[in-house]
Amino acid sequence: MSKSxxxxxxxDTNGVDLIVQYRKSAVFFMKRYEDSDLKEHPRGGIYIDGKxxxxxxxxxxxxxxxxxxxxxxxxDECWTDFKPIEADSIKADYDDYYDRDxxxxxxxxxxxxxxxxxxxxxxxxxxxxxxxxIKFNKRTFSSFIYDMxxxx
Length: 152
Description:
Strand order of the largest sheet: 1-2-3-10
Number of helices: 2
Radius of gyration: 15 Å
Structural class: alpha+beta
Largest sheet: 4 strands, antiparallel
Number of strands: 10
């Protein structure tokens, strides 16, 4: 993930950072994991344990609005003609998504003034201690923004 990524960090009411990285054609929600989140996989190798992949982000009303506004600005940088659109197919759905890089599913749910994310399992550790919670393409991001707007 090094194609000149830009990054913005949003800190929730519990002091937990939601790291948003983006580039042309992709947006990533990331989280820092602790070394204590690393576990040995039964089939060999070290992976980030499930608790290092989950987070329940809570924001104030103002923080949630600022997050949405920033994500809209990011979408305009990443894609031309970006429009929030209701999910109308499996490919537009972000709440239960398949992450091809890790050959596993992840989950994302929007709640009142917050989001709950569970990144795809089987993620190996990296030098930055960052774990990917979700990778959005244009269609999934447009349905995500559409649903966030309904919460404001």
